[in-house]
């Protein structure tokens, strides 16, 4: 396991290094599908330049990173390339770990390390040379999942706080992490049991405590709370309508002013809304719940990029055993591939050639998100169906002995 | 009976330009020895020469200095030289408030609306999204050592169009109106049929022999008549041809009423009639010029016909004019609707002296500037500005403000470039003609240019108005302000016919997600048992009523 993994890692490092140095890097770092106003590297450099000029980076509307990012990049701005090259590896390693873990639990199939790389590649390639801090955010989430799977509640809470601090949406990962730990410690999820509350409060305390500490540290960097409206206010109120692969930008560009607040609330609640129902349904399967949550965040967040898409797609190989139950995988892969090809084409036609207009790009956005939703719900269906087969047998028969079909009722 | 301290002077300067055009500059100056802003004094209610509307505005909003200009056309520095009073295309307003004002923004907002009414202009479009507070570029031109730029507000509307409706209220502010004096020449059909037209009002407190404070109101009107649009091929200008009027009398309220004609390049260039023995020399804009003076308060100027018409007949071909020492241009580079670059090019044409200039740029918020891409190069080498004041924009609240002090090497071209990204606005924020583009106001380049000729620092009453507009602090340099072209930038537009469709389609996609998850969360897998035929179902129904066991 170690040797092929190391070999793969070396190969990946080489490919990434080569691509970073090529002229492709600058081209891709400007693309709207890859960078967003929240995590563009150009904006980080701008924020640091403003700091050098003596102006707070949060006084304008160009810099929306958290103060800890300023801390980090102030010293490593010259070594940024290395940071960006290293961070996606956390995601890669984690997906390997997940694949091996799940398989060990279920004991199905053979070693599929190569299939893991295969799945990784299309996902990561899209954000492989993007100069954006999305890679760092993904790395933190990957580390958090790693620590959760290894059973370290303290580290997991701290990393989750860090991930939440970076962008608020990982808050929804609190529930699956909690469920995982409860399952691991054999504490039943029963609201009347004191052991449940005991552990929940402990974990919540670690999480909230680290969040408070990190926020306090950020206050002391620039001596003001300016970063809260600039970062979190920006994520929630979506003032910047730069086109991206999400659903928010055109919706709020064409919104009647009267209803803007209402729809902002609706769209933001939509991200957090599925946590409780999914946790109830998947309380025995917290790892899959984490995957579902990450996928929902990536689809419905306010400024998604292909980096977020690559994060949950990197975990798909862990559920390669669900392949036989997937219903729409061909359609979904065709849709996603076609959209990936059409995004740059229609962007060019709208912005540079002037022969298309914004509706073309918006249509592909809709299709892409529809494809993603279909993919995620397809995997969910396959997972639930497999669970059903595990308890009721693979070949089901009707009352009269003929082969049965399974439906959702 | 109180004395009425105050005086009114009017003058017209005609400067033939080397390109064959003619530059006419009117200045009307009203001096009034009173203090609006002094506490305890009786509220001023008697206005004689000073217009009442402006006086009330000054006292209500505690204005220390007010400068407003309306310009149509762009001043071509390289062909016409430096103007007496520079102004950018469109409308420009900058105001210094008195330091007793507590809410400057509130006063500014009300002031712009009141001025909008006085001048019949759409100055109400000035709001916080296009107002800046320059820290160094617009120091007070009058009294007052105000250094706190919190009391300064500057705004420009490059899209503002100037027409007769703006000229009429401007003329009404004059003591004689347009009935007597030089103002009779201001007929809009001729004034707007020109290459450049600019009317301005400048109010400032000045020092009357430094014993008492007085308010000075200057109304200036600069116009450049085009040689070619006049229609005739002959190079001949007269007052009648320029303004379709001649002068018949001076304004009775004026203490001085003069017409100056720049004859520095005479007699090779043109011939002037009627001749006049009065000559005057003045150092203006770093150059010593000779002027023929016609005093309209003297009856013999009007001759027997009681009408004064100036005639200039061109003789030779235009020679080389003195190259202006400071000149600036600006343009947008790049392609596509995503990014772009603003290039500002500043020329220093002095053969051996270097001097610093202050460049002020106010860029609207929807063009997001990236200050880390700012480069200043002179003679293809990096030229680091010694002072940079940058205030980044806040979306929908305030624009970018960039002020830099750049040292220009002698005889060189300096290029300032900065990259920007174009934002997508909400559909309601676009103007009705979104594909026309969005205007970016002119950059302002202010400098103390070294002068070849010694400037006089004494201010005398007899000094012509055009040379006393800007206070001269030292002899070896004069103050110049150059405005660049405004920019026209296209932004990406959404489809304006689509709001309902977009809401429906996006909500559909979200609902598809919701529907799929709802199905999977609330339903369970069951083996599909086919429903029994209708007869059996009916039989079961009847059996259930009877209470008998059901069929299989």
Can you tell me the number of structural domains of chain A? 2
Beta content of chain A comes to: under 5%
The end-to-end distance of chain A, rounded to whole angstroms, is 43 Å
Largest sheet of chain B: 11 strands, mixed
Mean pLDDT of chain A: 85
How many DSSP-defined strands of chain B?
Answer: 27
Radius of gyration of chain B: 32 Å
Q: Which two protein chains have the largest interface (Cβ within 8 Å of the partner's Cβ), and how many residues from each?
A: A-B, 66 and 52 residues
Main sheet overview of chain A:
none
Number of helices of chain A: 19
The secondary-structure class of chain A comes to mainly alpha
How many whole angstroms does the radius of gyration of chain A measure? Answer: 22 Å
Sheet-strand content of chain B, in percent, reads 35-45%
Helix content of chain A: 55-70%
Oligomer designation = heterodimer
InterPro entries (chain B): PIG-T
Organism (chain B): Sinocyclocheilus rhinocerous
Protein name (chain B): GPI transamidase component PIG-T-like
Keywords (chain A): Endoplasmic reticulum, GPI-anchor biosynthesis, Membrane, Signal, Transmembrane, Transmembrane helix
Summarize the entry for a quick read.
The complex is a heterodimer of chains A (409) and B (552). With 409 residues, chain A is an all-alpha fold. Helices cover 69% and strands 1% of the residues of chain A.
Layout of strands and helices, then pairs:
The complex is a heterodimer of chains A (409) and B (552).
Chain A (H helix, E strand, L loop, with lengths): L1 H20 L2 H6 L11 H13 L13 H10 L3 H7 L1 H19 L6 H15 L6 H17 L2 H14 L7 H11 L9 H29 L4 H11 L10 H6 L6 H14 L1 H7 L4 H15 L5 H8 L15 H25 L4 H35 L13 E3 L1
Chain B lengths: L5 E11 L5 E11 L19 H10 L1 E10 L4 H4 L9 E8 L6 H15 L12 E2 L19 E6 L6 H9 L15 H4 L4 E13 L3 E14 L10 E3 H5 L12 E7 L7 E4 L5 E6 L2 E9 L15 E4 L11 E8 L5 E10 L6 E9 L3 E12 L2 E2 L4 E5 L8 E9 L3 E11 L15 E3 L3 E7 L26 E7 L3 E3 L9 H24 L2 E3 L6 H13 L6
Parallel strand pairs in B: 1-10
Antiparallel strand pairs in B: 1-2, 2-8, 3-4, 3-7, 4-6, 5-6, 7-8, 9-14, 10-13, 11-14, 12-13, 15-16, 16-22, 17-21, 17-24, 18-19, 18-22, 20-21, 23-26, 24-25
């Amino acid at each position: 396991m170690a040797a092929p993994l190391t070999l793969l890692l070396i190969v990946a490092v080489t490919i990434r290094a080569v691509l970073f140095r090529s002229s492709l890097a600058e081209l891709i770092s400007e693309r709207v599908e890859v960078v967003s106003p929240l995590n563009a590297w150009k904006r980080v450099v701008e924020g640091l330049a403003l700091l050098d000029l003596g102006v707070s980076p949060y006084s304008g509307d160009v810099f929306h990173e958290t103060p800890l990012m300023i801390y980090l990049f102030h010293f490593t701005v010259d070594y940024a390339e290395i940071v960006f090259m290293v961070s996606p590896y956390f995601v890669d390693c984690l997906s390997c770990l997940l694949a091996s873990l799940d398989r060990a639990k279920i004991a199905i199939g053979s070693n599929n390390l190569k299939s893991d790389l295969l799945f990784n590649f299309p996902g990561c390639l899209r954000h492989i040379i993007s100069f954006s801090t999305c890679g760092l955010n993904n790395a933190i989430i990957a580390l958090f999942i790693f620590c959760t799977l290894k059973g370290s509640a303290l580290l997991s809470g701290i990393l989750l706080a860090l991930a939440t601090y970076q962008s608020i949406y990982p808050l929804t990962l609190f529930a699956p992490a909690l469920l995982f730990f409860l399952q691991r410690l054999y504490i039943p999820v029963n609201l009347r049991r004191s052991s449940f509350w005991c552990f929940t409060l402990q974990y919540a305390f670690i999480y909230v405590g680290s969040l408070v500490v990190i926020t306090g540290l950020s206050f002391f960097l620039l001596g003001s709370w300016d970063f809260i409206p600039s970062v979190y206010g920006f994520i929630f109120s979506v003032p910047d309508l730069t086109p991206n692969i999400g659903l928010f930008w055109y919706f709020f560009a064409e919104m009647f002013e009267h209803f803007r607040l209402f729809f902002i609330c609706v769209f933001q609640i939509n991200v957090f809304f599925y946590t409780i129902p999914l946790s109830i349904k998947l309380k025995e399967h917290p790892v899959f719940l984490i995957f579902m949550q990450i996928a929902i965040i990536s689809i419905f967040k306010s400024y998604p990029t292909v980096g977020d898409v690559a994060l949950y797609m990197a975990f798909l190989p862990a559920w390669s055993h669900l392949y036989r139950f997937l219903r729409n995988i061909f359609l979904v892969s065709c849709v996603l591939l076609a959209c990936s090809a059409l995004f740059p084409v229609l962007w060019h036609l709208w912005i540079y050639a002037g022969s298309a207009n914004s509706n073309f790009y918006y249509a592909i956005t809709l299709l892409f998100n529809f494809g993603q939703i279909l993919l995620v719900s397809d995997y969910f269906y396959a997972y639930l169906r497999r669970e059903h087969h595990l308890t009721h047998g693979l070949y089901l028969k009707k009352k009269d002995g003929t082969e049965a079909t399974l439906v959702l009722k | 009976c109180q004395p009425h301290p105050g005086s009114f002077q009017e003058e017209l300067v005609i400067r033939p330009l080397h390109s064959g055009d003619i530059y006419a500059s009117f200045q009307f100056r009203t001096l009034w020895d009173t203090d609006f802003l002094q506490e305890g004094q009786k509220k001023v209610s008697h206005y004689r020469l000073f217009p009442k509307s402006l006086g009330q505005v000054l006292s209500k909003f505690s204005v220390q200095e007010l400068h407003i200009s309306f310009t149509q056309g762009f001043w071509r520095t390289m062909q016409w030289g430096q103007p007496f009073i520079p102004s950018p295309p469109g409308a420009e307003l900058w105001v210094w408030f008195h330091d007793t004002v507590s809410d400057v923004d509130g006063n500014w907002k009300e002031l712009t609306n009141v001025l909008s009414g006085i001048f019949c202009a759409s100055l109400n479009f000035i709001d916080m999204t296009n107002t800046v507070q320059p820290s160094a570029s617009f120091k007070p031109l009058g009294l007052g050592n105000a250094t706190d730029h919190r009391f300064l507000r500057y705004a420009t509307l490059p899209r503002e169009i100037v027409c007769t409706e703006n000229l009429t209220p401007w003329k009404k502010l004059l003591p004689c109106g347009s009935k007597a004096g030089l103002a009779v020449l201001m007929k809009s059909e001729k004034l707007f049929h020109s290459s450049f037209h600019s009317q301005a009002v400048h109010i400032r407190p000045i020092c009357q022999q430094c014993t008492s404070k007085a308010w000075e109101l200057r109304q200036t009107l600069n116009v450049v008549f085009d040689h070619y649009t006049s229609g005739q091929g002959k190079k001949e200008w007269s007052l009648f041809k320029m303004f379709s009027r001649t002068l018949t009398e001076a304004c009775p309220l004026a203490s001085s009423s003069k017409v100056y004609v720049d004859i520095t390049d005479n007699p090779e260039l043109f011939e002037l009639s009627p001749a006049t023995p009065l000559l005057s020399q003045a150092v203006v804009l770093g150059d010593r010029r000779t002027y023929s003076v016609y005093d309209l308060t003297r009856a013999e100027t009007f001759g027997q016909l009681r009408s004064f018409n100036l005639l200039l007949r061109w003789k030779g071909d235009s020679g080389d004019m003195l190259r202006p020492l400071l000149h600036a241009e600006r343009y947008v580079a790049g392609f596509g609707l995503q990014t772009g670059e603003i290039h500002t090019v500043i020329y220093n044409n002095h053969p051996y002296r270097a001097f610093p200039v202050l460049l002020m740029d106010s860029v609207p918020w929807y063009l997001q500037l990236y200050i880390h891409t700012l480069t200043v190069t002179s003679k293809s080498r990096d030229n680091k500005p010694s002072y940079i004041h940058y205030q980044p924009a806040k979306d929908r609240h305030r624009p970018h403000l960039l002020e830099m002090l750049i040292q220009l090497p002698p005889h060189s071209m300096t290029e300032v470039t900065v990259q920007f990204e174009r934002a997508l606005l909400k559909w309601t924020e676009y103007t009705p003609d979104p594909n026309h583009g969005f205007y970016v106001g002119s950059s302002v380049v202010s400098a103390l240019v070294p002068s070849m000729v010694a400037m006089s620092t004494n201010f005398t009453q007899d000094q012509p108005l055009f040379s006393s507009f800007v206070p001269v602090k030292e002899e070896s340099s004069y103050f110049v302000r150059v405005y660049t072209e405004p920019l026209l930038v296209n932004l990406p537009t959404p489809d304006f016919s689509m709001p309902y469709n977009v809401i429906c389609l996006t909500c559909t996609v979200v609902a598809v997600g919701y529907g799929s998850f709802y199905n999977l969360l609330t339903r369970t897998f069951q083996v599909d048992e086919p429903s029994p035929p209708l007869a059996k179902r009916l039989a079961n129904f009847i059996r259930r009523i009877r209470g008998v066991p059901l069929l299989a």
